[in-house]
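Title: [Solved] Aldose 1-epimerase 3D structure

Original question kept below for reference.
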Amino acid sequence: MTQVSHHPWGEWPGQGTVDLWVVQSPQVKVEVLTLGAIIRSVSYRGNDGQMEDVVLGYDNLEGYVSDKRYLGAVVGRVANRIAKGRFVLEGKEYQLDLNNGPNALHGGLRGFNKAIWLAAAVEGGVQLSLTSPDGDQGYPGEVQVSVSYTLQGEELTVEYQAQANKTTPINLTNHSYFNLAGQGVADIYDHQVSITAQSYLPVDDTSIPTGEIREVKNTPFDLREPVLIGPRLKELQGPGFDHNFCLSSPGGPWTEKRAARVCHPASGRVLEVSTNQPGVQFYTANFLDGSIAGKCGCRYRKHSSFCLETQNWPDAVNQPSFPDCLLRPGENYHHITRYTFTTV
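Solution (posted by the thread starter after getting help):
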């Protein structure tokens, strides 16, 4: 039996009231904010029987309003990077704001993560909805978006849908940062990760895919069998993982498949992720630097957490060989991701 409740959590001056929704099964408790459709917390037991919150976040609304690292948020209209913030659609060039070096990232300066969504109870959870107007952050067309969080036992299902009145790129994901030892624990070096990808996307020095689809075999990106994150990070050039792992081929069907598994042996906690998306961005919090004061005053530092951002491939709007990221009038964007929280 899943219990669902909500209450006002804070007021964003000039924007409105932000509510906190609590979705709880006997095994897992999830908190969701109407700001950014943010997952504020996920708590479940380790093998010692103790409930622990495994998602990074803030104690108050002010933290989320000023946040620049997308903690727990739904990001859009287009998650990840668009090269030079520029794309051509139906013969017209669109220029977006640049908010990540020379590129556009996660929907723009005021993406879906900074919107207050409408919320309504659904069976076993909450559904949040948003209207993104024509021209929002430079994107064409009005888009009606919804995301639902439903909990059944150990499994949290996140379902995204969208419709547009003009052709527009779209790519939605959730940007939760996880540490299975508990949010606030210093690092994830003792976590084991596996990702069921045969290939990944190499990137340039601004994190834009080069266009090559490279096999993971005989590289540090071969995560098909479980590996400890700490030692593997030392094999990488650069600050850590921030790469798209290819779960299916361009043109392949969007069918649900297992994407990743992370285990924290000391606590026994396991997170398994499945999705119908063609990629997952594995990110090891390379740009957290201790400047963020999170829950209970914890300082979130580099490699203090990981993200598994299920999504289309980065910069797909500019790379014809990548899976199609365009949503056309009359079509329905449908993305489903399931997170299963267990112990071993």
